[in-house]
Amino acid sequence: MKDDNFIKENNAKHLWHPMGHPADSLANPPKVIVSAQNSSIKDLDGHETVDAVGGLWCVNLGYSNDAVKEAISHQLYDLPYYSSFAGSTNPSAIEASYAVREMFEEDGMSRVFFTSGGSDSVETALRLARQYHRLRGEPNRTKFMSLKKGYHGTHFGGASVNGNNRFRISYEPLLAGCFHLPSPYTYRNPFNETDPAILAQNIAASFEDEIAFQGSGSIAAFIMEPIQGAGGVILPDATFMGLMRDICDRHGILMISDEVITGFGRTGSWSGARHFGVKPDMMTMAKGITSAYFPVGAALIADKVADVFENDTTGEGAIFHGYTYSAHPVGAAAVVACLSEIQRLDTKSNAAARGKQLYEGMLRLKEKYDVIGDVRGGRGLMTGVEIVSDRASKTPMGTPTMKKIHQATYEAGAMVRLGMHNVLMSPPLVITEAEVDQIISALDAGLGAI
Ligand SMILES: Cc1ncc(COP(=O)(O)O)c(C=O)c1O
Description:
The chain is α/β, with parallel strands linked by helices.
């Protein structure tokens, strides 16, 4: 291992960071995180904070789960890798698919296609949706619909259904045939509607209108996050996902629930769709599936879709899609251990209780600071705080001030994440009451510093 000076001097000289400007990384060296315990992280200078980001909405078990670490290390000795392309498999992959199916059976899921992460899972679901319709004799169903403010990863398919132009403009033209509906975002929406239930109805009407315009026989799938995460933690009305489900059913459109953040307990339920009482046709997973101890994702498939593939006799049901690391034995061992641990610890219940505490803490800060325009959360450990320079006009706070808030919060004891002018929080699901209090007081200090 090189010494600290080498680490500090060399970072951005050779490493390009995802989601950042290379020149900015050179000018403003990032925090170098060297170790972590439970729900806390420590940087190269020895400064320790509570990790209110949970790595990146993913370290749900915190950093000290020995069961998952041991499962990974044992698997490395038994079988570090073998291909799962048709013709070979491995015991951990079989066990992992069984465990995942068991966990999401209540959501109607019966088959698992493993990937290396969330973007891969989204890509898999979009492709399988098109193939499903071809197999059923409706090859013209190729279009995708999604929500503005949605985040579905950065592959070309996922970027095409993404609803935030930051992830799109530099990479256009994207996939043809992708169309977006307004987000269920009560703080800002084109209907000027602050009632979430009425907003949900308005979006449902827009969905029907767009389907009529496109022709329902041309749409393969609708993809949505049950709670939009990276877009700013946007919580829809409790009726919203069900309304979308009904419309999909009425028009033969598959519903893909993108559960990369909301899966595995973050909402206070094991899946976001279950949280809202909806059974999707496919689910996309990653992050919490291994608590990020190993990069794994999965596309989950309901019977209705699986039957069409499995009963195909033409040969067209062959899946010519997959990744070298699909069903990786080490990843699969991590999945099995992680799922067992989250159930043993009942992380979803702690997520619900601590999420409420964090949300209420943020509402109290809103009373104190005029720069807080909107606070979103309360359904598990996903909390967004929208910062504005003027409450009346809702002017988004500028980046330099956001960076100041971030740094002062960090110095006061909590790592938070910025998504433009939003402060986003998604701590480990095993976080304690005292640690949530520490996040609230650190953000209080951060906001007090501007
Ligand atoms: C809802 C959602 N879908 C897909 C992705 C992409 O996942 P990954 O970054 O693992 O490719 C993310 C990542 O944050 C996400 O939040």
